[in-house]
Specification:
This protein is of the alpha/beta class and about 120 residues long. It has 2 helices and 8 strands. The relative contact order is 0.23.
């Protein structure tokens, strides 16, 4: 089976602030890169094309409704929630134990996007 989610674009009104937010949240570096005339923050990824980037956007393009992207925080869900709040984000839905499906919390990122944090069932 192929992966159902292959990429995500996360809009940001302040690219550098968003790169700092997601680097701290994920506990790894989000690299600032450019292609043609567009700068973006490339989310870390393994040897696959499954990833995403933070893209510059106007404030009107950012929404707290719509698709909910789940980001793997690899057993660091409590730390990631704290980092989100310390980096200008907000906890929208507290950590929820989904049994065999892991742990989930929903935050508002530094740019106003609603994002889910996910950790495997055996992790906290």
């Amino acid at each position: 089976m192929t992966n159902q989610i292959v990429w995500v674009d996360i809009p940001a009104t302040d690219l550098d602030r968003a790169i700092a937010f997601y680097s701290a949240l994920l506990g790894t570096t989000v690299k600032k890169e450019s292609f043609n005339d567009c700068s973006f923050g490339l989310l870390p990824h393994a040897d696959t094309n499954i990833s995403g980037c933070i893209i510059p956007a106007q404030a009107d393009d950012i929404s707290t409704k719509g698709p909910l992207v789940y980001l793997n925080v690899s057993g660091r869900i409590d730390q990631a929630i704290a980092v989100a709040e310390n980096q200008g984000g907000q906890l929208l839905e507290p950590k929820l134990n989904m049994g065999n499906h892991g742990l989930r919390a929903v935050i508002l990122d530094s740019e106003g996007n609603r994002v889910a944090l996910h950790s495997a069932p055996t992790s906290q």
